[in-house]
Amino acid sequence: MSDLPRKAVTRTAKLAALPLGFAGRSAWGLGKMIGGYSADLVGHEVQKRTAEQLFKVLGELKGGAMKFGQALSVFESALPEEIAGPYRATLTKLQEAAPPMPTRTVHAVLAERMGEEWRELFEEFHDKPSAAASIGQVHRGVWHDGREVAVKVQYPGAGEALISDLAQLGRFVRLLGPLIPGMDIKPLVSELQDRVAEELDYGLEAAAQRAYAEEFAGDPDVLVPDVVYQCEQVLVTEWMDGLPLAQVIADGTQEERDRVGQLLTRFLFSGTARTGLLHADPHPGNFRLVTGNRADGGAGDRTQSSPDQWRLGVLDFGTVDRLPDGLPPMIGTALRMIIDGEAEAVYELLCAEGFVKDSMELDPGAVLDYLVPIIEPAQATEFPFCRGWMREQAARIADPRSPAHQLGKRLNMPPSYLLIHRVTLSTIGVLCQLGATVRMREEMEAWVPGFAPEQGDKEALAGTETPA
């Protein structure tokens, strides 16, 4: 018997309460304003109550509702501050924690999947979960060979809940618009629906994590825990200590923010080039700042180690995009053309790749304007990401009167690029939450096919920078 609310009618009712609750609070707010309260005060209270309900419902349901909430959390930096403020704390909670399932349920799953003598595989097993998320929770333990491990246990009924939630969210996705103003939620829900089976398959997750762990073994910048054991609904990996990225966002020093931002950018581009896999769930709960020299990623002492010793610890490989040849060369080639001012050539390339339908004519300059959130960081030697910049870009693209908004509705994103685009924008959202200054162009030149200047261009640039 599952501890999740499994009946579709129950979960649908809870999810339907989100837009209905917003409508009710809006009516309450209108009444308050008629009664003489200021619009700002009433608006803040409505958003606060909406945020509280959002976290309560999504957190309680776990499953697809929780996954949806985690995906939303990386975009809070794009919201206007008067809206983002009330949402920030509640959405950020979804990156790290969810109400846990009872100990008896955990033991039942382990006994069913690992055998009645499952405890003999561990020297220690902590019943209290160290983390709880959308479809499973993590327990700390010590494997029989002495290694500290993380034991990920899938919630009973998680598959049904995930499929049901995303189906329901898809049915009334338009009503969810007011919860996150200015954001098109439909493509996000559609993409989550497309990857339901992969998210539930711990065998696929284990294979992806092993590939990353093998490739980054001994890497000075990135740490990926190796897989220790895997069976249906259970995944055991090496334990990794470290400072959660959410904590760096909350109170990290600028030095920590910049270092983690650089490593996150490096991992985004280098990980795909080195493994043929794109880590497609870049919310802060999946990353740690790892310091010190311990091979297991000990937390270390941040005050006693230099920034070049800090590494990015990476968790959760349940959602990946399989790109055996790395990122499509078209991405790097198009961005290089943009930087070189070749708007017409970029437009022709986008047409050839199916981004622009044959029946449609667009202004090449407007296409470049739409891509500013990606172009600007790639153009600068160093780019200072911040919430203010992200809000400006979101407001510009969300404004129905702007050419960028109209263009966004007319561009045709080929399916093979959808997840890459979402992961890139999500990572940019996290960099803005960090407030990190990052050398993105440097990472792209090293890892993105087609982006680096031709060798002749490099020599010319070198000649201008270091005169004889």
Question: Your description of this structure?
Answer:
By secondary structure, the chain is of the alpha+beta class. Among the domains are: 8-96 and 175-184, no CATH class; 103-158 and 198-237, Phosphorylase Kinase, domain 1 (2-Layer Sandwich); 329-456, no CATH class. Helices cover 54% and strands 11% of the residues. Strands 1, 2, 3, 4, 6 and 7 form a six-stranded antiparallel sheet that branches. Strands 5-11-10-8 form a four-stranded mixed sheet. The chain has a two-stranded antiparallel sheet with strand order 9-12. A hairpin with a 2-residue loop joins strand 6 and strand 7 (234-238). The longest helix has 27 residues, at 8-34. The termini are far apart. The relative contact order is 0.10.
What is the strand and helix layout of this fold?
Layout: H1 8-34, H2 39-61, H3 63-73, H4 81-96, H5 103-114, E1 122-125, E2 131-132, E3 136-143, E4 148-154, H6 158-171, H7 186-194, H8 196-200, H9 202-215, E5 222-223, E6 227-231, E7 234-238, E8 243-244, H10 245-251, H11 254-275, E9 277-279, E10 287-290, E11 311-314, E12 320-322, H12 329-339, H13 343-352, H14 364-370, H15 372-379, E13 383-384, H16 387-398, H17 403-410, H18 415-434, E14 437-438, H19 440-447, H20 455-465
Parallel strand pairs: 5-11
Antiparallel strand pairs: 1-3, 2-3, 3-4, 4-7, 6-7, 8-10, 9-12, 10-11, 13-14
Helix pairs in contact: 1-2, 1-6, 2-3, 2-4, 3-4, 3-6, 6-7, 11-18, 11-19, 12-13, 13-14, 14-17
